Amino acid sequence: MLKGHQSWVFKNKPVILATSAVGGPFESKGALAEDFDILHDDMWLGQDSFEKAEKKLLEEACEIALEKAGIKKEDINVFLSGDLLNQIISSSFTARTLAVPYIGLFGACSSSMEGLSIGSLLIESGAADYVLAATSSHNGAAEKQFRYPTEYGAQKPPTAQWTVTGAGAALLAREGDGPRVTCATVGRVIDMGISDPFNMGAAMAPAAVDTIQAHFRDMEREPSYYDVIATGDLGSVGYEICGDLLAKHGMNIPEEIFTDCGIMIYKDDQPVLAGASGCGCSATVTYGHFMRKLREGQLKRILIVATGALMSPMSYQQKESIPCIAHAVSIEM
Q: Which of 26, 74, 200, 228 is the most exposed place for a label (fewest CB within 10 A)?
């Protein structure tokens, strides 16, 4: 059911039967290492390219979610996935492996909640009984495509972020036990003219603010409704800007419930500059850390606002500014 201008309310509350989080060696040293199902000690995952390694991450995340739920891949009605690589090849090649109906998405780093919201809508409408929503990113692959190959050793400014090597998946169903998706707010594209790919947090923060405002306006509720409100991967720079902009618009979200996945995932002594980014950032933190807390009863209601920069290497080379978006999903136990 449409509520307000941008939000969907799911009367049947699709259930998240199972989730998974897979990471790399850098994530194994991070603050949320215990919330991953698998942590690899090799960036290459035994493959001969970073791109193939990312595909393997995503395949593993999907396999684990299915195994946890006790569901065969043949039961999946739709696989929804997106990633950062050109033409979302990690997702499409994983869909080739799964051999199930597939819809590819591109929301950049917002793809985790884009997939979860669309998957919930498919379940709600009766178009699917089981939906697998997933996404991934790889530090080596993303850096090579959007910035410089890591082997180049280019120095980065303090505003830069570290792309997460990880993948997350969620299996949605009409019935079952687990956290439920109660509503979602679809974001608008917001572009404030920033063109620096090393300052993604600042570029994405206004989009996060726009979606957060839309969510609370459409749903007619206060921030205190949630135990946690987490943005996707703004990092320390974008998170501060987001908080300042929300305050200027008269929305003060208490610091004890407002956080960012890009700040949470790594430790302070890891050299990530402004924090984490990548499709795998909000996916692994949500499907690993937050899902564990929901299932253990430590949290009851969370709002995940995944943020994404809708740029490409070509648009950057042509000196285009960076259009950004954020999608919010409310998950309740």
A: 74
Q: Average pLDDT in the 195-211 region?
A: 93
The pTM of the full predicted model, rounded to 2 decimals, is 0.95
Provide the residue count of the chain. 333
Alpha helices in 34-75 (DSSP H): 50-69
User: What distance in Å separates the CA atoms of residue 294 and residue 312, rounded to the nearest whole number?
Assistant: 35
Query: Which ranges in the chain belong to alpha helices (H)?
Result: 50-69, 89-98, 111-125, 139-146, 200-219, 235-248, 261-264, 279-284, 291-295, 313-317
At 23 the three-state DSSP class reads strand
Residue with tokens 């495509």: 145
Residue 142 has pLDDT above 80, yes or no: yes
Mean pLDDT value across the chain:
95
Phi/psi of residue 169, nearest 5 degrees: -140, 150
pLDDT tens digits along 67-96: 999 999 999 999 999 999 999 999 999 999
CA atoms within 13 A on the CB side of 259: 17
CATH of domain 2-173: 3.40.47.40
Which fold is adopted by the domain 180-332?
Peroxisomal Thiolase; Chain A, domain 1 (3.40.47)
pLDDT at 153: 64
Find all residues with CB under 8 Å of 54, minimum gap 6, and list them: 83, 85, 90, 136, 137, 138, 141, 165, 167
**In terms of Cα–Cα distance, which of 52, 110, 60, 118 is closest to 82?**
110
